[in-house]
UniProtKB/TrEMBL annotation:
Residues 523-544 are annotated as: Disordered. Signal peptide: none annotated. It is found in: Membrane. Keywords: Membrane, Transmembrane, Transmembrane helix, Transport. Belongs to the sodium:solute symporter (SSF) (TC 2.A.21) family. GO terms for cellular component: plasma membrane. This is Solute:Na+ symporter, SSS family.
Amino acid sequence: MQWTELIVFSALFLLVTVMGFLAARWQKGETLDHLDEWGLGGRKFGSWITWFLVGGDLYTAYTFVAVPALMFGAGALGFYALPYTVILYPIVFLPLVRMWSVSRVHGYVTPADFVKGRYGSHWLALLIAITGIVATMPYIALQLVGLEAVLRSMGLNGGGILGHLPLFIAFVILALYTYQSGLRAPALIAFVKDILIYLVILVAIVYLPAKFGGWGQIFDDAQAKFDATPSKADGILLTGTNQLQYATLALGSALALFLYPHSLTGILASRGRNVIKRNMVALPAYSLLLGLLALLGFVAISAGTKPIVNQATGRPDTNTIVPELFGANFPSWFAGIAFAAIGIGALVPAAIMSIAAANLWTRNVYKEYVKKNATPAEEAKQAKLASLVVKFGAVAFIVFVDPQFSIDLQLIGGVMILQTLPAVAIALYTRWFHVYGLIAGWVAGMGYGMWLLYTIGNPAIGKAHFAGSALPLGNISLFGWHPFGSSPTQIYVGIIALIVNLLVAVVVTLIAKKAGTFNGTDQTDPSDYHVDEDNPRVKPVAAH
């Protein structure tokens, strides 16, 4: 048991717990018994709050343990996270501003709300809602993976169900203050989380390289390690087989990230278009942090850090690389701060994700199919209960299922959420696609993407299926035809599935339009996409 680290960790955890409960009084509205207040913070967050909230939402605890772990195990491929977050903001700059405007006018809370309003189809909206909920669940579980890595490094996480007790206690506390305070809790805690993260990474990136001979020596040690492995795909430089994988994974991840419901939750909580614009300019500062963080994977190689062995599987858990690196090389008190930064970094996105999933359930399943005349207070209560179910479902997943499987599910989640791009993102600019085309495209892209993921195995870890998100071009077949021959070049499955989705959507749309079938009722107006917070025709959202 690392007592000094544990005391510092517990003190900072207690601090954010108190902040989480006090957040119910912060920027308080008339009542929290309304989905706009509980689930979107009253839609009145300014630039600074939005910056910390969205940053805390997108750069999660799992990011801070997984990216360096990937660099540690695979080398340069793990650096895909940097171009992915660089190209992300220019891609989503204009769509997010338009989404905020139309949501402000019509009182939309979820992307499925927008889809229903745009196409007048509750079935298409249901598909988008279910996709968002299913894709978000393993993402929440992955925050627990990051938190568990820290608990293991402090000696708090043993075998069996009782060994997960500290994790369970942490998420009970999270569930309670999220239930009480809603989105205001992670928004307020995000300030502490990001300050700690910046402090720890900046210290680590200066102190640790100096301790191990400088960056030149660190890169030499990393290259020596990868040269000694039998794999031809690792190394400090990309190879001919993984360059396409690197590019498509970065592009696919960028397209997918703001399709996740929790990403849109942070955006819709802001008070205006100008707030979003300023954040799209300022948020790339996190990319600089991420680039420095990723290099800690190479630092761990030079330091000779070894991951903790997972007692259940008998295999090293590379997610513990960064906590082990910090625990072995920082003074105990500062290692405690570093562990708290990662642990609190799990709470912020987990809270936002659970709120986003609860909003989807309440607005697009409960109110649409269970109780159409639900009052705002009933909606808020249903969302609070749903957020509890989602959180404890994620905890149960970690306790009773191999955590590595949740990582695989998150890869599947990325492929899944990409299939909502035509109905959500493209629909912001054109209503050319027919409802039938969008549904058919979703089915085709989802089905083909899941099939390709099913075919990906990894004998090294004993998995025959769902062992990754990239496959050789030579493995792609269309009814027995292999368009790329036997090419070993890897590509991200999500991009392939999205292309299939779009092609099918176009074909079915052309057929449906020629047949003259009904295409729903559009409730939006072109001027809806250009309103600002000061526009006199925009009423307070709570009045809708």
